[in-house]
Specification:
Elements: E1 5-13, H1 37-54, E2 61-65, H2 67-78, H3 84-89, H4 98-107, H5 113-117, H6 121-133, H7 135-141, H8 144-156, H9 167-175, H10 181-195, H11 198-208, E3 211-214, H12 223-227, H13 251-267, E4 273-274, H14 286-292, E5 296-300, H15 301-308, H16 323-326, E6 330-334, E7 337-344, H17 346-355, H18 361-382, E8 389-395, H19 408-420, E9 424-426, H20 429-435, E10 440-443, H21 464-481, H22 492-501, H23 505-509, H24 519-536, E11 581-584, E12 598-605, E13 609-616, E14 629-635, E15 663-668, E16 673-680, E17 684-688, E18 693-696, E19 699-705, H25 706-709, E20 715-725, E21 728-733, E22 739-743
Parallel strand pairs: 1-2, 1-8, 1-9, 2-3, 4-5, 5-7, 6-10
Antiparallel strand pairs: 6-7, 11-12, 12-13, 13-19, 14-15, 14-20, 15-16, 16-17, 18-19, 20-21, 20-22
Helix pairs in contact: 1-10, 1-11, 6-7, 8-10, 18-19, 21-22, 22-24
């Protein structure tokens, strides 16, 4: 029997608890929420996703709604939630304080400017003033109408394009400027109106059978780390752990029960699926999930790979080899009972999350459908009796900020293609499991302890700042345990503060790996939740909780923190490169010391290209202050291939300059032309065609397609940059090192 290829999309909708318990002082309503992301993502990302899907009734999907997100949506709908952004937006222009004006100039452009600011001329005009003339100039020169317009546009730009045909919204978009307080009040009312439709729309589509809604442990904690922080050493045996071991498995059933009851109340039925926070699983958490009544969970292909002791490789097109291992559900067998689990295709999920936003919508949709058609062909060729299920699971909100029109053209093109393709069938996970129960089994004790990030927990533990936060949490948890009289019934404040502090997001932002414009606010919120525990127990607050967990000054050198998609125009847009790796050159000691005309090097990747940026001292001229030739040389440490030496005169015989390399891209900084070569036999170099892009303006920006380098996904590369003048070696960077790159 020939089956279609079944595909389960799971969209994960989550926000941490921005609601502050008070940090020991009474809060005015305008201080209840520290950040606005529930309100803004609520108007941009949660309702439109399912409204678009509703237009394509053949397509079934799963949406995960985290309880802590729903709680906060309900506060905003009720009009009881206020954040500093909203408070400023509803303040009469003439009553804005100096501090509020500073805050507005600094934070009311917190958005991807390519997609949310640039399309709106007035918003773009104000953004360019701040970028080109600086915050101090804006503070000194802006007049009340400038603030009024910025307050309005910050809220308007986050309203999803799907709602732009609303007569009021259309009028505001056309108006463009001269917004009044009354306009802003109406925009706020429109936001609440959109938010109020989110849960009813999900419930309606679930009852109609097109949608399955799932849930997550109450405040999105990493369950395996609640059970035992030592589980971090399963994937990383030498991990440095917190000073105190956190072992409070008894909190796991509390988070699960609260999520279960919360779901039943809002959706009128019991949940079947559970999205474990950050797709984090371990053998220790399975009994609690089974006891609560959940039927299935999802995790990542890396977790499956560790569990099966199988490394998933991909071919040159990015398709999984041995796909029958990944594209099937498994049954986890435990003494408490069985639990189904599906594992997502990490690469396909990441293509939507991090790369397709940089491609034309129809091309991106065709690329994804092409991958699925290739998998469907592999399924037919395998003549498998069991149908395959491709799980695509990802964050359902943040990625759309990088898509034109919030992803609407992409999703429309994708959904139309999937509706027209007879060999591809979109299902909810429960639908598939009911028709085709899992036949492959995994003993529960064999399940790997890890998450979607590299199959480990290093994003949430192991770093000095993350460990310090765990120690603070452990002390607060022990304090609550020392008050057995404080139950959830008679002291809910203490327990709610604990649940909030156990959430994963605080640990995500602490330490190395992730950073944002709000790191200090996340730090403060975490400590405020811990404050709330002590305050509710009438215990003195430890002095260390009054100091930040870590220093939030700008980092120097760091590795890439996420995918990037810079526009290659030589302007070095700060948002384009904010997640790139960074190496300081000008301040380094040695051959390229303070006098270096190159100040820093930025690098990063997406699924299409490798990106490089060089920042120069002001006023430099290639060919005069700077050698005219920049050579990028790559080698592949785990691949046997023909390599050749750097083809330059006067080259020092020292590592890494005396290594052999496989690809060479020479950039002429005077003409911005390129020559691409590949190593051949007898230490020769042969010309090859390249689609690399280069631009030199106030910095040098470069994009090199992975297709030029002809390496498969999940592959390590090493890169060095060598400066030359008329074929003679001049200098190289980074000093005494290589740039480590992983092909996604």
């Amino acid at each position: 029997m020939s089956h279609p290829l079944y595909i389960a999309f799971i969209w994960h909708q989550h926000q941490p608890l921005y609601k502050s318990p008070g940090s020991g002082v009474s809060l005015s309503p305008s201080q209840q929420y520290r950040l606005p992301w529930v309100r803004l993502h609520g108007t941009k990302d949660y309702l439109d996703l399912v409204l678009l899907l509703e237009r394509y009734p053949k397509l079934h999907q799963t949406v995960n709604l985290v309880p802590s997100l729903i709680l906060q949506l309900e506060d905003y709908i009720a009009g009881t939630a206020f954040d500093p952004y909203l408070t400023a937006s509803l303040t009469p222009d003439e009553q804005l304080t100096y501090q509020q004006r500073e805050f507005i100039i600094q934070h009311f452009f917190d958005a991807n400017h390519h997609t949310l600011i640039d399309p709106h001329p007035r918003y773009a005009e104000l953004y360019q003033q701040r970028q080109e003339k600086g915050q101090a100039w804006c503070l000194a020169n802006w007049e009340l109408p400038d603030y009024g317009d910025l307050l309005a546009w910050h809220n308007l730009a986050w309203i999803d394009p799907l709602f732009w045909d609303d007569p009021e919204i259309a009028t505001w978009l056309k108006q463009g400027r001269s917004f009044t307080l009354s306009d802003r009040q109406r925009i706020y009312s429109k936001q609440r109106e959109i938010l109020s439709r989110i849960i009813p729309q999900h419930r309606k589509m679930q009852e109609a059978g097109q949608l399955e809604v799932t849930t997550t442990p109450y405040t999105h904690p990493i369950l395996p780390l609640l059970a035992d922080t030592n589980s971090g050493r399963v994937a990383v045996p030498n991990m440095t752990l917190p000073k105190q071991r956190f072992e409070w498995a008894e909190d796991i059933p509390r988070h699960l029960r609260k999520a279960w009851d919360f779901y039943k109340d809002r959706f009128g039925q019991i949940p079947r699926g559970l999205w474990p926070s950050e797709q984090s699983v371990s053998p220790a958490v399975l009994p609690y999930i089974i006891d609560q009544g959940f039927k299935w969970i999802c995790s990542d292909e890396a977790v499956l790979g560790w569990t099966l002791k199988h490394l998933f490789h991909r071919d040159g097109a990015g398709n999984v080899e041995q796909p029958e291992l990944l594209y099937r559900p498994y049954r986890l067998q435990t003494a408490e009972g069985d639990l189904s689990i599906v594992f997502r295709d990490h690469r396909l999920s990441d293509l939507i999350g991090f790369t397709y936003g940089a491609m034309p919508a129809k091309q991106a949709a065709a690329d994804l459908v092409g991958h699925l058609q290739a998998i469907a062909k592999m399924q037919r060729d395998s003549q498998s009796e069991q149908p395959w299920l491709v799980t695509i699971a990802l964050d359902g909100e943040n990625c759309w900020e990088f898509y034109p029109q919030d992803g609407k053209p992409f999703l429309e093109a994708l959904y139309q293609s999937l509706s027209d393709e007879p060999h591809l069938k979109l299902v909810t996970v429960s639908e598939f499991l009911e028709e085709f129960p899992a036949t492959a089994t995994i003993p529960g004790g064999q399940l790997h302890s890890g998450s979607w990030v590299d199959g480990s927990f290093t994003t949430w533990i192991g770093d000095p700042a993350k460990n310090r936060a765990w120690d603070y949490l452990t002390e607060a948890r022990k304090m609550l345990a020392n008050h057995p009289e404080a139950t959830e019934e008679n002291n809910p404040e203490a327990w709610e503060a604990l649940y909030a502090a156990e959430g994963s997001d605080w640990f995500w932002w602490f330490g190395a790996g992730h950073s944002s414009n709000q790191d200090a606010i996340f730090d403060r919120l975490f400590r405020e939740h811990l404050f709330g525990i002590y305050k509710a127990l009438n215990e003195p607050v430890p002095p260390y909780l009054k100091q930040p967990v870590e220093n939030h000054e700008a980092q120097g050198n760091h590795t890439p923190q996420g995918f990037i998609h810079p526009v290659i125009d030589g302007k070095g847009d700060e948002q384009d490169w904010d997640k790139a790796g960074r190496i300081e050159i000008g301040g380094a000691r040695g051959t390229m010391h303070n006098s270096s005309v190159i100040q820093r090097l930025w690098y990063g990747v997406d699924h299409l290209n490798f990106y490089l940026r060089l920042d120069f001292k002001g006023g430099i001229a290639p060919g005069q202050d700077l050698p005219a030739e920049l050579n990028l040389l790559w080698f592949y440490p785990e691949k046997t291939m023909v390599n050749s030496p750097v083809p330059l005169a006067d080259l020092p015989d020292a590592a890494p300059l005396n290594y052999l390399f496989h690809h060479l891209l020479e950039v002429n900084l005077l003409t911005q032309s390129i020559q691409f070569r590949e190593a051949g036999d007898n230490y020769q170099w042969h010309p090859r065609f390249s689609r690399a892009q280069v631009a030199l303006n106030n910095c040098l920006e470069l994009a090199v397609p992975w297709a030029d380098l002809q390496v498969p996904p999940d592959y390590p590369l090493r890169l060095i940059l060598v400066l030359a003048d008329e074929g003679r070696f001049s200098n190289y960077l980074p000093e005494n090192a290589l740039i480590h790159i992983e092909v996604p």
